[in-house]
Amino acid sequence: TTRTPQFLGLDKNPALLPESNSESDVIIGVLDTGVWPESKSFDDTGLGPIPSSWKGDCESGTNFTASNCNRKLIGARYFSKGYEGTLGPIDTSKESRSPRDDDGHGTHTSTTAAGSVVNDANLFDYAKGTARGMATRARVAAYKVCWLGGCFSSDILAAMEKAIEDNVNVISMSLGGGMSDYYRDSVAIGAFSAMEKGIFVSCSAGNAGPSSYSLSNQAPWITTVGAGTIDRDFPAYVSLGNGKNFSGVSLYKGNSLPGKLLPFVYAGNASNATNGNLCMIGTLIPQKVAGKIVLCDRGVNSRVQKGSVAKDAGALGMVLANTAANGEELVADAHLLPATAVGEKNGDIIKSYLFADPNPTVTILFEGTKVGIEPSPVVAAFSSRGPNSITQEILKPDVIAPGVNILAGWSENVGPTGLSIDDRRVGFNIISGTSMSCPHVSGLAALVKAEHQDWSPAAIRSALMTTAYTAYKNGQKLLDVSTGKPATPFDYGSGHVDPIAALDPGLVYDLTADDYLNFACALKYSAAQITSLAGRNFTCDASKTYSVTDLNYPSFSVVLAGTGSVGNGSTVPKYTRTVTNVGSPGTYKVSISSESPLVKIRVEPESLSFSANNEKKSYTVTFTTAGSLPSNSNSFARLEWTDGKHTVGSPIAFSWT
Amino acid sequence: AAVVKSKEQQRWTYIVHMAKSEMPASFEHHLHWYDSSLKSVSDSAEMIYTYDNVIHGFSTRLTAKQAQLLESQPGILSVLPELKYELH
To answer: In this complex, is the C-beta atom of B30 within 8 Å of any C-beta atom belonging to chain A?
Structure first.
């Protein structure tokens, strides 16, 4: 990627980063649409021999042989038996029955995690710069599990099985589906087994935001990653005939618009379809659109398809207006015709002009790439939000990372829009989603793993979570683009990742596989369900009282009884947490900040002294309610331990049910 | 009736979780046990994948009735229908 390494501070203080030898021992397995091995991001120049721990393979198939792998892309496999069992044999004229990426998504995610350094990367000159993955020297193993017809659980499970056998250190999965109980969810089941073998698993949180309870991949042994923006934009202004200009974004490159104002039409008024405003295929009337710029509303079909529909109808350009679902979030696209995307507010004003003026006119002014945009990051509107719909007592997502307008490697079997009619071919593409934020965290986890080879997946996640930030440099809280207001831990979890701080977190909240099995006992899973989840027998102790709040998680989600419910004005159970010192000896003192006077938070002890590395100390947090709020109300607080050098932060979310 | 019959014969992919610790001693290898369990509900069904690390079990294509029957067999933890995931 370009820009995100700088945005994350990876370009500063190279002395703080792990030594290249230890980084090159880390293997990241990416389960996705496969890989485009010819991408410059898989150049293996300067990399040493493949780690001796590697047990994987480079499988051959359609347009792919073992020689496509090298010392960067060390493994490539494909899993299609489940897919073919359901949908029939793969049509190799449409997709490769091999690890080759015909879609681009898998190449984008794997190069984001661990792509080599590539100078002068860009998409049509946009986002130009030196591209690199988060862990430039880590090795990549691609496991193709997603096909034109989707990603099937039997294939995903088989790929995770192989990735574990192959000895990857990190698994990155930018996919999800449904909100099943953990013992029914193949990703959660596979991730449990990986975690037990010391493999860090990061997954995308999903793009179902800004609705609440919209998260995927919520199991506590998975690191769940939401998406934020970076300080880069691609402005393309809408200039109306009334002299007013409105900011938008675009990645269009191609024939320019005529240097004059053009007739402007609302798609809803250029269609006989009830949803004509959405520019769905076949809904625009060419006679009403030809030679004009058309305004389409966002939603239902893809943004780039709307541009294609407008172009096919003879439009010269398109303005794409957000609706309430997306608010002011601007996602740039490499449209097939001159087009720009505007936020809901600007869209509404532009539509008012369109409806009021008998002869509306417009043009679009493309400004290229701008950096230093503030505020950044802001939580992306599409990023899925908590609370956790399966176990509300576990706060998810865990963190956010860059996921909007990310440039990374691409498949040359497909154009940048992904549309079949797009015959442009690019080495890099700019796309958005929690799919893009997840591999950022996978790569950063690889860096932490390289620096601390003996750390468990939970310790690595803890380091990423407790060092994440929730405020801008000026002290203002991170914003949510969907509301324009301060975001909450249900939007960003512990905050935005800060990898340099994560390399030296001071304290970590560690967890073992048995801790998670105790958690399963607290969920009252049956013996069969636990065996299904863990792949081994585990007996819950009938004499023991289990609680989901006992899980030594680096964040807190406290569920309280709402107005009229039993339990008002009471003390909820104590939360006990154990921190492990991974820094130098020192004394940490606690501080609490809370926005709710209704919940009193007491931490005991208020200070923790460590005299040795790996020393563990426990503390308890008691939440006493002085009143209650109506059901579905939320409030938030933050607990921080600091020794003057490190700050170990935990968000606290209160939910009144 | 033909439609109902056709629906009954429709096969779906299932992931079968086996309780490996309950494997009868008469089987030398767990794959033989898996195969025997599968054959007890369907002569024609084949294993798509076998799993040893993430779970103990296999995936296969069965009718809904066969899946239900398999789930009631000893040593079967669960028979979960295939789920489709999507890229984010």
So the answer is: no
How far does Cα A410 stand from its chain's mean position?
18
Q: Give the whole-angstrom CA distance, residue A578 versus residue A582.
A: 13
- 3-state secondary structure at position A366: strand
SS (HEC) of A189-215 = HHHHHHHHCCCEEEEECCCCCCCCCCC
Nearest to A340 by CA among A229, A235, A232, A481: A235
Q: Of the ranges A20-24, A436-440, A609-613, B59-63, which one carries the lowest mean pLDDT score?
A: A20-24
Strands (E) across A564-657 are located at 575-581, 586-594, 599-604, 607-610, 616-625, 633-642, 647-656
Give the pLDDT mean for A414-438.
Answer: 97
Q: Which amino acid is at A394?
A: I
- CA A471 – CA A111 distance, rounded (Å): 29
- Token representation of residue A69: 């792998």
ipTM: 0.96
User: Cα separation of A319 and A334, whole Å?
Assistant: 13
Q: Which two tokens stand for residue A543?
A: 């004499």
Q: Which residues of B touch A153 (CB under 8 A)?
A: 15, 80, 82-85
Is the distance from CB of A175 to CB of A146 less than 8 angstroms? yes
A555 pLDDT above the threshold of 90: yes
Facing residue for A189 by CB, picked from B55, B61, B87: B55
CA distance A264 to A284: 14
Largest CA distance in chain B: 46
Report, as an integer, the average pLDDT of A193-217: 97
* C-beta neighbour count of A181 within 10 angstroms: 15
Strands, E assignment, A289-328: 293-297, 317-321
Average pLDDT, integer, range A211-231 = 98
- B49–chain A Cβ distance below 8 A for any pair: yes
